[in-house]
Amino acid sequence: MKKKKTEFKSTITVTESAVKRLVAVMKSDGKG
Hints:
Layout (H helix, E strand, L loop, with lengths): L1 H30 L1
């Protein structure tokens, strides 16, 4: 149970960083 919770947390962190990167790319694209 504890291990699964840690895996879930790391998945959320990876997703968050990916979203932030995507947002940064979109912002720089908008500036063009």
